[in-house]
Amino acid sequence: MSEAKKPVLEVRNLSVSLPAGADRAHAVENVSFTVSPGEIVCLVGESGSGKSVIAFTVMGLLAKALKPTSGEILLEGENILAADESRLRELRCTRMSMIFQEPMTALNPVMTCGLQIDEVLETHTKLDAAERKAKIIAILDRVKLPEPERIYASYPHQLSGGQRQRIMIAMALVLDPVLLIADEPTTALDVTTQAEILKLIAELQAGEGTGVLFITHDFGVVAEIAHRVAVLRWGELVELGPTEKILSRPEHNYTKMLISSVPSIHPAHRGVRRDGTTVLRTEKLGKTYSGNAFFQKARVVKAAVDVDLDIRKGETLGIVGESGSGKSTVARCIARLIDPTEGKVFLGDTEIATMSASKLRPHRRRVQIVFQDPYRSMNPRITVGDSIIEGPMNFGLKRDEALARARNLMETVRLDPNSLDRYPHQFSGGQRQRICIARALAMEPELLIADEAVSALDVSVQKQVLELLDEIRVRLNLAVLFITHDLRVAAQICDYVAVMSKGRIVEYGSAEQVFGAPRDDYTKALFAAAPGRNWEFGKFAA
Amino acid sequence: MLDFIARRLVAIIPVLTVVAIFVFLMLRLTPGDPAAIIAGDNATSDQIDEIRRALGLDEPIWTQFLIWIGKVLQGNFGESFFFKKTVAELIAQRVEPTLALAVCTLIIAVITAVPLGVLAAYRHGSLLDRCVMGFSVLGFSVPVFVIGYILIYIFAIELGWLPVQGYIRIGVNFWGFLERMVLPSVTLAVIYVALIARITRASVLEVLNEDYIRTARAKGLTNRVVLMRHALRNAAVPILTVIGIGIALLISGAVVTESVYGLPGLGRLTVEAVLSRDFPTIQAVILLFSVVYVLINLVIDISYTLFDPRIRY
Fold first, then answer.
1. pLDDT tens-digit map of A94-111
2. Would the CB atoms of B218 and A97 count as touching at under 8 Å?
3. Structure confidence at residue A272 (pLDDT)
4. Residues in CB range of A502: below 8 A, 6 or more apart
5. Residue A318: what pLDDT?
6. In this complex, is the C-beta atom of A136 within 8 Å of any C-beta atom belonging to chain B?
7. Does A123 reach chain B within 8 Å, measured CB to CB?
8. Predicted confidence band at A274 (pLDDT cuts at 50, 70, 90)?
9. Cβ–Cβ contacts within 10 Å for residue B224, how many?
10. Torsions phi, psi of A111, nearest 5?
11. What is the pLDDT of residue A504?
């Protein structure tokens, strides 16, 4: 980056106020940074750090409740905070563009992709229909979408997640803006797709000299793409500098803590203990979904095929895979939340795959699940105490005994036992996930299934919950089935790992073997795509 | 798609069977003897028996039912007890005013309610929004006949702009037809405007929070384009559903409106037939309504695919 170039974006002393009654006065306070042409600046921070608020302020798309109170945002020298609505509309997509986290919901589901890009040209240029079409086909080609003509006429739901994000990128870059704001653009994507999209963004911006403001919470992505990094906490900029320096020699304690929390991609050496009794074994487990129809051929989807797994006491088995690989289907079959269509599931010596619902009920207690989203997996109108004791009481425990158990468990998950009469919304995401773990443990299960249980959490909270899960596993000698898409998390918590792809297990072995010397091509590709795989995130004493 | 339509058409058969049995039994089991009504106040019991025999009402209920259903399957709905015409003729005569009323009402309701709802959602919380919502509460709570008489009083009696009652066939005099259609349609439309505006507001409001609305704004589109092109089409499915239910309910609303405005439609025919215990007519009209109801629902379901490409049958 030559220092002589004028920055495309200059944020000076920006403050954005929160409405009265929020937990703090400002969403963003006194933040200053610049983005130069051809430069990628990452805004990194945990949820609530204000990174998205900055992005939306630049675009002029802030929610009405939030108001910029001071500072300037200069886009090529023009102060955006002083621009009126019609000037902002002119600038959007011509000088500054934005792409979003979830390409499925960010595209209008009832309009073809071509028309959605066409709108941009129709609004901002005087090109006629044929010229617009030609330009759109050209940009679709540039973002490397196959068969641009077909994609032009496709609806978003007919494309894959990666293709949809390419459409968003095409839409954002069709008029060659000087600034691209990318708000967690790869967070909702699978790891291999994420790698492709990151590569595409880097290529396009380098080619055109576009300045990129890239928002992420993932240090792997930062290591992969950023030139400079700005670390935010509670709306304040804590550290700003070149990527290499921030990642390897962070100065601020918060940055040190964040980077230290990133799980290593190399498996922790946990030693092999094949001595416990087998808690769960599946034999050729399979799940086939089929629809029936009058005239058409019935649709058959094989969500899981020939899955053989076993977990012993005190062991964690991880199932890793991308979305649609069947990992959650397997977990749900094992818990009999859905009925398997083939194969057997042995819980201890009991075969439960084909057991009738009434016979199964006494065995339900033995398998418990912690789900991904702690915000949605608890009934908001029931106190957490009642949520925890509901299960044990259903299995015959008296209320005061169940409550005593709940108080114990709250201590186990390091929450205040006196907060049992509070409601879920009074807890943070990490606390809620602890409550979900307590709720699962209240049933005294033999097998705990964690289905992406830490995926919705910030990295520092994630670290605490992972440590808690591991501690509980050791203390209760529990068998844990850990479902995740995150290879780093899997490397840290699993004794054994099964890699799934398209409903089948493609590789199964000890974590050390699978991560250290993967044999299957898919596993290798998966690992190769992990962002920041070449970067060993240091552990800093904060 | 064809598969879906075929399945839905087949599903009409059990619906109509149940409706047929139910209506038939209801009519026979409720008090009121058509023979006595036809015979008049001064008839002797012999005369009444004679009429009853002539109408076939002396047979056991199940025999009556089988005779009736057998004829219906051949497309013969029988002869009205009262009007001395075949039921088919009777319905054919009366169908135009009702159809005209339904279509006019629907047009008025949709072209007022949808823009009102969209505006209310866009200016959510504003005075306009509160007025629209207030109007819809009012529209729901005031009975059709009250609105009818108020409108007649203001526009027909006080101002004298429009005729009070009556009907002119569309083929006879188009302006006369329109003049006589305005008040009844507006009367009947009030409740549908309330209903559709409410649903439009709610579903547009929900859509306005979606990510793709944010994307549309990030593209630099004007508010009008964002609202009409992006928000409304995505909000269409619930609105269509309500319009569909509305059309079905129109039929019951038409009974009252036609009486208030003296329109010789199916609604009034139903009232007259019920009052005179004209069994064949009531049965035929209700069967007809059921078929219409099922078909409207089918059309609405199919129309979803026009608005949302993700819906496939």
1. 999 999 988 888 999 999
2. yes
3. 58
4. A324, A325, A326
5. 94
6. no
7. yes
8. low
9. 9
10. -120, 145
11. 93
Q: Give residue A1's pLDDT band: very low, low, confident or very high (50, 70, 90).
A: very low
Nearest in space to A111 (alpha carbons), one of B313, B118, B210: B210
Q: Which of A91, A111, A294 sits opposite B3 (nearest CB)?
A: A294
Domains assigned to chain A: 1-95+177-262 (3.40.50.300), 107-176 (no CATH), 265-366+477-533 (3.40.50.300), 368-444 (no CATH)
- Give the gyration radius of chain A's Cα atoms: 25
A291-305 average pLDDT score: 71
Cβ-based neighbours of B157, under 8 Å, separated by 6 or more: B164
Count the Cβ atoms, other than its own, within 10 Å of residue A366.
18
Give chain B positions within 8 Å (CB) of A119. 216, 219, 221, 225, 229
Residue A3, pLDDT score: 47
Phi, psi of A309 (to 5 degrees): -140, 155
Contact between A119 and B211 using a beta-carbon 8 Å cutoff: no
CB B280 within 8 A of CB B78: yes
Q: What percent of chain B has pLDDT over 70?
A: 100
Cα A115 from Cα A132, distance rounded (Å): 10
B174 to chain A, any CB pair closer than 8 A? The answer is no
Among A62, A92, A100, A108, the strongest candidate for a mutation testing the B interface, having the largest count of B CBs within 10 A, is A108
Q: Which of B218, B221, B229 sits opposite A98 (nearest CB)?
A: B218
pTM: 0.82
Given a contact cutoff of 8 angstroms between Cβ atoms, the answer to whether A164 and A107 are in contact is yes
User: In this predicted model, what pLDDT tens digit does every residue of A418-473 receive, in sequence order?
Assistant: 999 999 988 888 899 999 999 999 999 999 999 988 888 888 889 889 999 988 99
Q: Enter the tokens of residue B217.
A: 């704004």
Q: CA-to-CA distance for B94 and B225, rounded, in angstroms?
A: 44
DSSP-assigned letter for residue A326:
S
Q: Where are the domains of chain B?
A: 2-73, 90-307
Burial class (CB in 10 A: 0-12, 13-18, 19+), A268: middle
Taking the Cβ of residue A92 and every Cβ of chain B, the question of whether any pair is shorter than 8 Å is answered with: yes
Q: How many CB atoms lie within 10 A of CB A154?
A: 19
Closest residue in chain A to residue B305, using alpha carbons only: A110
Predicted confidence at residue A293, as pLDDT, reads 54
ipTM comes to 0.79
| pLDDT at residue A270, rounded to an integer | 67
Q: Is A173 touching B (CB cutoff 8 A)?
A: no
Q: Would you state the pLDDT for residue A292?
A: 61
Residue B40 bridge partners (DSSP) = none
CATH architecture for residues B90-307: Orthogonal Bundle (1.10)
Tell me if chain A has a CB within 8 Å of the CB of B312.
no
Longest pairwise C-alpha distance within chain B: 85
For residue A295, pLDDT over 80 is answered with: no
Measured distance CA(A419)–CA(A442) in Å, rounded: 16
Among B2, B211, B219, beta carbon nearest to A120: B219
pLDDT in tens, A53-99: 999 999 998 888 888 999 999 999 999 999 999 999 999 999 999 99
Q: Is A15 on the interface with B (CB under 8 A)?
A: no
- The closest CB to that of A295, out of B2, B212, B308, belongs to B2
For residues A471 and A343, give the distance between their C-alpha atoms in angstroms, rounded to a whole number: 33
- Cβ–Cβ gap B3/A168 under 8 Å: no
Is residue A76 a contact partner of residue A217, using CB atoms and an 8 Å limit? no
Length of chain A: 542
Mean pLDDT for the stretch of residues A487-514: 92
- A139 in B contact zone (CB under 8 Å): no
Residue A242 has pLDDT above 90, yes or no: yes
Chain B residue nearest residue A172, CA to CA = B219
Cβ pair A108:B214 closer than 8 A:
no
